[in-house]
Design a protein that fits this description.
About 35% of the residues lie in helices and about 25% in strands. With about 280 residues, it is an alpha/beta fold.
């Protein structure tokens, strides 16, 4: 199926298609709905947010801090015409947020009544916790020698055709040529794809916007399997764990600069009063 697909750098002309793809794809993601529980009630706000987000990615690619790639496939409506069906956004080496940098505050534009789809406290906590985890899991270990995946999305109508795999392989080839690690935080939806391609879990990030304890923490893994699985344990909210196999691929990369691909899985849990918007979205 991949033979009918082509991958190329995104341009400003792709912003509209990228917005449509992310709006359709992200709505299937529980982690995304955790931050945007009212997206079904305010689709115009959500569309405007994603439009600004994709325009920002293209602007960053022009500045040289990010790379944005898209996949084209034959249209379902007219196979003779190709259309953009998937996208990937990577943060380039030398542009990651360093330890001590203040997390970017999530702003609300009340004058235009935007962000009604979002839960701003959850968005803020999510950004802060993943920023902290990225520093521990990736930045302290790989420094400038990493290609960090910010976003990977495929239009649901074009799932299981190899678009996501093509984008990942593009990044893996680039990393291999340049002696980089490919790093990312996986969602439940994307984890199977990454593991199939050889990514290994290094840790779990728990994100929660209110008090209480959260779920389970799984042993982190490098590219080589750990000899023995460590016992699972409960962790307080907002904490994360990191275990590295000292003889695994992470150590190989540090010593020999061999490429390695890593996953940091995010786990989100909402507590407190039920959100009517989220309840409506879950039906």
């Amino acid at each position: 199926m991949e033979s009918t697909l082509t991958v190329r750098p995104a341009t400003e002309a792709d912003i509209g298609a990228m917005t449509t793809i992310t709006m359709m794809a992200y709505s299937l993601n529980p982690e995304w709905r955790y931050r945007f529980p009212r997206l079904n009630f305010y689709p115009e706000d959500h569309h405007a947010f994603l439009l600004r987000r994709q325009a920002g990615h293209i602007d960053n690619s022009i500045k040289g801090t990010h790379t944005v790639m898209v996949v084209e496939a034959p249209s379902n409506q007219n196979p003779c015409v190709k259309k953009v069906v998937a996208l990937g956004v990577w943060e380039l080496p030398g542009t990651f947020t360093r330890e001590g940098d203040a997390p970017q505050k999530v702003e609300i534009d009340a004058t235009q009544n935007q962000n009604r789809d979002a839960d701003i406290p959850r968005m803020q906590v999510f950004r802060e916790k993943l920023g902290e985890a990225k520093e521990v899991f990736f930045n302290r270990i790989y420094g400038e020698k990493q290609l960090f995946l910010l976003s990977l999305a495929t239009h649901p109508e074009y799932h299981r055709r190899g678009a996501g795999t093509m984008l990942c392989r593009w990044a893996m080839n680039k990393a291999r040529e340049e002696g980089l690690a490919v790093t990312l935080f996986a969602t439940g939806i994307g984890k199977m794809l990454y593991e199939k391609l050889g990514f290994k879990q290094l840790g779990v990030v728990h994100v929660e916007s209110t008090g209480g304890t959260v779920g389970k923490a799984f042993p982190a893994q490098s590219r080589r399997a750990l000899n023995q699985e460590k016992p699972r344990k409960s962790l307080p909210r907002g904490t994360f764990v990191l275990h590295l196999d000292p003889h695994g691929a992470a150590a190989d990369h540090l010593l020999n600069r061999e490429p390695v691909w890593i996953i940091g899985e995010t786990v989100m849990k909402a507590t407190g009063t039920a959100d009517p918007g989220k309840l409506a979205d879950s039906t």
